[in-house]
Specification:
Shape: elongated
Pfam families: Lactamase_B_2 (PF12706)
Helix content: 25-40%
CATH superfamily of the largest domain: Ribonuclease Z/Hydroxyacylglutathione hydrolase-like
InterPro entries: Metallo-B-lactamas (IPR001279), RibonucZ/Hydroxyglut_hydro (IPR036866)
Protein name: Ribonuclease J
CATH class of the largest domain: Alpha Beta
Structural class: alpha/beta
CATH topology of the largest domain: Metallo-beta-lactamase, Chain A
Number of strands: 20
């Protein structure tokens, strides 16, 4: 007969920074990790995580669960002992495998093909733990939350999420439906970014008019976005007028194919073609929407069109504004566009106001906020009465 034991939590990293999150949930008999990310640029010089039984020493971990494929959540999984099973939502795993295959000459070994695929709502049993992936929405497609249960305790790990994307209803359902939660561990990236009463926070849907207007005004419309911004790229593709071409490179095309496998019809991409010579020749005559990244080969393409068709070409900048000053390749593209630059971007992270709402929906007994560099969130957040906000440090152990 199973006896009750203590369920404990340790944030190996992420208590006081955005990048590099890694959370351990464990008992006397079982250890699970949720994400094992790399620190973001600008978060100081940091050694990689050195976790006994996971990245060093004798293997002592029963599984690692990944919420999504962004580097600040998976960036150090290459250092994990290969004997430890890794779990990820099945379509997100396919996207990650394409990403790693594309970059394998740069980042080293590809491991995603060995990751265990999990399905939304289908529980996985590991010893005394039951882990269930719940639907979420983030700027990485097919992100998930995790419900973790053991010894009568129930923990919700949100990963990165938002309530202003195309799948807001699904996220709200994940927050409303799991029942009593003893501990909620939620991201707090945007805690200090309050929404102005006069300038409401933009949604993904609110970017559509900017795309439509660009195609009315310009024949050649470039979209500069991260290759993982699949929701936005699909949305952009749906705005390309009939008779014009929607073009990506072969890598982005492959990502969109996987993305469309798990998408309601209204949210699928529309008529995406990869950049064959035949397509490019037709597209220059008819006009196009074309997705680009900031590397040198795309810079040459964008520069060419701005030089040959200065009045008919525009660049939609759909990334965090800080990259313009931080990354010279991004600035180069923005400079090419000049006055024909259109900014259209929203965050992949939950707003402060929606974070408060999410916590109010869940109403956990205890709350931990990670994935934030904000030091004053206790004073900034308006929480329902009765919720114990735990202030934890990296490596500190707390009992659920």
């Amino acid at each position: 007969m199973e006896t009750k034991g203590a369920v404990k939590v340790r944030l190996h990293r992420g208590a006081k920074q955005i990048g590099g999150v890694c959370t351990e949930i464990f008992t006397d008999d079982t250890r699970l990790l949720f994400d094992i990310g790399a620190s973001l640029e600008g978060e100081g010089k940091q050694a990689r995580l050195d976790i006994d039984g996971v990245t060093t020493g004798t293997t002592n971990c029963d599984g690692i669960f990944l919420t999504h494929y962004h580097g600040d959540h998976i960036g150090e999984v290459d250092f994990v002992d290969a004997a430890i099973p890794v779990y990820m939502e099945k379509h997100a795993r396919k996207i990650l495998e394409l990403q790693q295959d594309y970059k394998k000459g740069v980042v080293g070994a590809v491991w995603a093909d060995n990751v265990n695929e999990i399905e939304i709502g289908k529980p996985i049993r590991i010893k005394e733990f039951t882990i269930t992936a719940l639907e979420s929405d983030h700027s990485a497609a097919n992100s998930v939350m995790f419900l973790i249960e053991a010894y009568g305790k129930r923990i919700l790990i949100t990963g990165d999420y938002r309530l202003h994307g195309f799948y807001k209803d699904k996220v709200e359902a994940s927050l409303m439906n799991p029942g009593h939660i003893d501990l909620m561990i939620t991201e707090g990236t945007n805690i200090s970014k309050e929404t102005s009463l006069n300038v409401p926070y933009l949604t993904e849907q609110a970017l559509v008019p900017a795309f439509v207007e660009a195609f009315k005004k310009y024949k050649y419309v470039f979209l500069l976005a991260s290759s993982s911004q699949l929701d936005r790229i699909a949305s952009f593709s749906r705005c390309v007028p009939s008779g014009r071409y929607m073009i990506t490179d072969r890598y982005q095309y492959g990502l969109m194919q996987v993305y469309d496998e798990d998408r309601d019809e209204e949210f699928k991409s529309n008529k995406v073609l990869y950049d064959s010579e035949y397509v490019l020749e037709k597209a220059e005559k008819a006009g196009f929407g074309r997705v680009v990244r900031s590397n040198h080969s795309f810079q040459l393409i964008v520069k060419d069109f701005f030089e040959r068709h200065p009045e008919d070409t525009c660049l939609i900048y759909s990334m965090w504004s800080g990259y313009i000053n931080k990354l010279s390749d991004v600035k180069t593209l923005v400079d090419y566009a000049g006055d024909n630059l259109i900014r259209a971007h929203v965050s992949g992270h939950v707003t402060k106001e929606d974070l408060e709402r999410a916590i109010d929906i869940v109403k956990p007994e205890k709350l931990i906020i990670n994935h934030t560099k904000d030091k004053k969130y206790k004073e900034q957040l308006k929480l329902p009465s009765g919720i114990e906000l735990l202030s934890v440090e990296d490596s500190e152990i707390c009992t659920v």
